[in-house]
Amino acid sequence: ARQLLRDAGWKDRDRDGIREKNTLELSFKLYAEEGWVTGLKMAIIVKDAFKKLGINAKVEKIERSTLLEKLRDGSFEAALVRLETTPYTDPYQFWHSSQADRGYNFSRFVNTEADYLLERARLEKDAGSRSKHYAKLQQIIHNEIPVIFLFSHQTLMAISPPLRELDINPSDIYFPFRMRKVEEGTGPTN
Q: I want to staple 59 with a disulfide (CB 3.0 to 4.6 A). Which of 43, 77, 139, 175 is the partner?
């Protein structure tokens, strides 16, 4: 990366640790959601990684609704965004070109093949066939890099043996299960 930057003319001529080209400093503003502890920690890690390359990532804490506004209208340079989804979330809203100015396609990603795959997947009743469309979409996103995925949060839950009845709601990220204790000798299994 350092060599690519040098080859492109970005050098630290004044030796302040930040690269310049002519009189322009190599820097960008990185929005991080205020109150999102993980995101703020990640912003510091990202800032430090860019600093090692001679790039000034200026972290700015921002309230979530203001951040979403900026993401929707495209008035940002970079942002750490948390999207809470489930394995059943339709990726159309994140990747279809029609969502670039009104949905969650904040990177303004436009790709006709990706659009086709998303549309076909929505019409596909068979989960296996739908997965094949999504696998091809994933490869396109991997190749074009419209966003950089930093991590995926997973939750592991343990359930006590007396608990026999469980209502699952995969769309609720924080409380996906509503649990009820079922007394011994009662419930649907007896």
A: 43
Buried b (16+ CB within 10 A) or exposed e, 54-67: bbbbebeebeeeeb
List the strands of the sheet with 56-62, edge to edge.
56-62, 27-33, 78-79
| 98-116: pLDDT as tens digits | 999 888 999 999 999 999 9
pLDDT digit string, tens, across residues 31-49: 999 999 999 999 999 999 9
Q: List, in sequence order, the alpha helices (H) in 53-169.
A: 64-73, 92-95, 112-123, 127-144
CA dihedral sign of residues 59, 64, 65, 70: positive
Tokens of 12: 């630290």
**Cβ neighbour number for residue 24 with a 10 Å cutoff:** 9
